[in-house]
Specification:
single chain, Rossmann fold, six-stranded mixed sheet, 14 helices, globular
Amino acid sequence: MEEILWKPSEARIQQSRMTAFTTWLSQKTGIAFPDYRSLHQWSIDHLEEFWESYLEFTQVIYSTPHHQVLDQRKMPGARWFSGMQLNFAENIFRRGFQGTAITACTEPVLEAGEERFSLQEYTYADLEKLVARCARGLKEAGIGKGDRVAGYVANVPEAIIACLACASIGATWSSASPDFGLEALCDRFAQVEPKLLFASTHYRYNGKTFRTDHVVRELHSRLPSVQTIVSIPYPVEEGNILGDVSWEEFLGPDDVPDLSFTQVPFDHPLYILFSSGTTGAPKCIIHGTGGTLLQHRKELELHSDLHPGDSLLFFTTCGWMMWNWQLSALTLGARLCLYDGNPGYPDTPALWRVADRLGVTHLGTSGRYIESCMKSQPPVKPGSLGAMANLRAVLYTG
């Protein structure tokens, strides 16, 4: 057996959300779970009971309870939690979370050899007000339950706000990042047929700023379903109006309407994501409201041990499924840290320095970035770059 390089302390194990759930489940069922393997096996053997138990443990907010957990163990065709009515955004803004919800920074601008970051912060109260104003703008633009909205957006707070506003009114969100080419965008969004498009005016990558107006104009001409384009300014650039209305105009007056939550079935489409497109045209993949909420909370709470007040930075773009995944950290009262740009600019270990600067507890990235750190000369050693005092977990995928 290979040498074990690290294992959590007994104190950390006892304080974990996995231990809290296992203890709670043992009391509920009268079954002892001596280790993770026994819990995992029970979740397979007692599929319906596991998911109904986790639904109760994690306290999902809903207006109408389910009358059946699972109608049939068959894929495709299985329907979960039939009869339930809920709202994804309500499971963020009706939990009483306080403190910082989002910290966002862009790729640094180098000035006289120094890294200058553009930083933005929003509390949960700030976020709720902006989502309420954006939801009002969506309704005034004729968007409602079941409509599709697309985002051609950088990884900035406005993308989160627009997505949650869609969720609050029962609209379905689909997004792609500004580095996608025109044909890749059309291959995806033409299938979705969005009524409204949010579009970033700029994005930065590898020390350069890129305008998007030419892409947006062509995209609009090829998406006849789009009735309104809302342009989102980039933090370190002067915004140019790409479409019908600017972000601030779309939000409307500063007076904040009450944020209401349209109730939808458990399997109501929350997101439309896409396959990679490497073996043909990208294929739409619909992710339901309740399934997304429950699965993401399980992965973040139990497997990642994300607690209220923790900070998650997962390097991603709005065209990768991890963008949708990391957004769900807000349902647990964590701080979501957004980074837009090249994680290896101006040098390979840049992302680690950002994580240290922001006090991140959970850092996520791609396997490719981890590999680049290993192959760098000399290899990147994160512990030598800063105190990393808060970092508890490194997540990677892809």
